[in-house]
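Task card 7
Instruction: Convert sequence to structure tokens.
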Amino acid sequence: MERMEKRTAVEWLVEEIKSKYSDIDFYHIKKEIEQAKVMEKEQHEKSYKQGLQSNFQNFELYYNKTYNK
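Output:
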């Protein structure tokens, strides 16, 4: 069985943009991309920790409460 590559949403987005717009120079936004990856990791960590202590009955309730969606 082939192992699927795991990517974060930010990594996926960067690759999608690179594949569609080959003339984009990511050098100028490298700091912003790295900051987005840090923020994404922090969100995953927060979600994980809250999930361990959660009284929410399902993910939708948690997500809506956390991100006001």
